[in-house]
Specification:
Elements: E1 3-7, H1 16-25, E2 30-36, H2 46-59, E3 64-69, H3 73-81, E4 87-91, H4 98-110, E5 114-119, E6 137-141, H5 156-169, E7 175-179, H6 187-193, E8 197-200, H7 202-205, H8 210-218
Parallel strand pairs: 1-2, 1-8, 2-3, 3-4, 4-5, 5-6, 6-7, 7-8
Helix pairs in contact: 1-2, 5-6
Amino acid sequence: MVEVSTSILSVESGNEAETFLLLEKSKTDYFHIDVMDGKFVKQDTYKKMIEYSNYIRRISNLPLDVHLMVEDVETGIEVFSANEPNIITFHLEACKNEEEVMKNIELIKEKGARVGIAIKPDTPIQEVYKYLPYIHMCLVMTVEPGKGGQTLITEMIAKINELKSYIDKNSIEIDIEVDGGINLKTAQRVKEAGANILVAGTAILMASDYKVIIDELKN
């Protein structure tokens, strides 16, 4: 079954409560928390995402899907674990070596969350293979991380396909999440390639009816 994780990056200040409750009512499966530090990517959303995560926790029981686009992964895990997210995803590119990757995986598990590893468009998919047995989700970025509203890089479809083939061949139970340029036009292709969690922000939040878009993305 395909799930939808709604990115709250572009939710306007002042409309948080109305938007979050409407997204829950519209049956989004997760709130996608885009955490950026201004170093790993240019934009800095750290403070805003802490505030939004705290706010969501007070008014909703929907799971948080935390995506750390940060250099200091360990601190990010510590900070965002406070709101008991369902999953915390960090970038493979933020780690210096295999030891650091495994350390982050273990820390997230210690905090009681599921583990995701994200990879940028330029990172070969094979680099994540060795970690797949230890994690719960692989996030394939289909745009350069750092800002919303970008167009999906079509070459990433083959990357998703390759990952799905490897997972099936090796009988690994893991989710494939796709983030970047997801809308009604691109969703079908990434689902056919093997993705089962779709991150969408602009496509949902700019719609007049969130539920219609979320239902169509799932189906």
